[in-house]
Amino acid sequence: MDPTLWRTLTSPHTIIEAETVRPSFYEDSETIAALKKRAAHSKGAGQTSDLIREATEGGIDLQNREFKWYVLSDLDDGASFELRISYPATSPADFEILVWTLSEAQEHLPKHIRLSDYFSENTMFARVKAVYTGISYLSTGDSASRSPETLPVPYNVVLERLYFMIPYQALKLAAVIIVVVIVGLGYLVPAIHSALLDVASEAGETTLDGKKAQ
Fold this sequence. Notes:
This protein has 214 residues and is of the alpha+beta class. The chain has helices at 31-42, 50-57, 102-106, 171-213; strands spanning 7-10, 13-21, 68-73, 80-86, 93-101, 124-132, 153-163, 166-167. Strand 7 and strand 8 form a beta hairpin.
């Protein structure tokens, strides 16, 4: 794990597209038990997949298959930011995003990795994890490597600064809406109200003239 390879999200707006992360499984999922059972039957035939070996031989903990780390830079003190993820519905997963200060992030890393050697004290970090939530139909042999729970989950990650709780990219739209509302309240509404009064006045005069004629 090399912190210098972590991708950086910079204020006020950064989007990183086409990221992938290997999903883990829920701790109470029956998937792991099923993997071990199938592995027990397949070891003799030599068809144990990489994923099954992970479950039975401890190569990789299926509860924690992969984390993706990101550096959050140029975050102004007192400002508000939004960090969000979008991903396709064809990849059923729950994402977990944790944001830490440098000292907090250091507690979740091996001791030989010293973040202070690479980053300033005011740098923040985000850790992304995906948990597979689809239906498991893992099998042994070659088909196991093509099961959806073995595939990386694609996603985009976005960092945006909030101005008055409005995302940076929505500022122009918000400004247009505000201008339209101000113009409407200041000019259009009074003009429409005046026109309606004129119509009502003319209608009243027409009614009176009609009665006099009778």
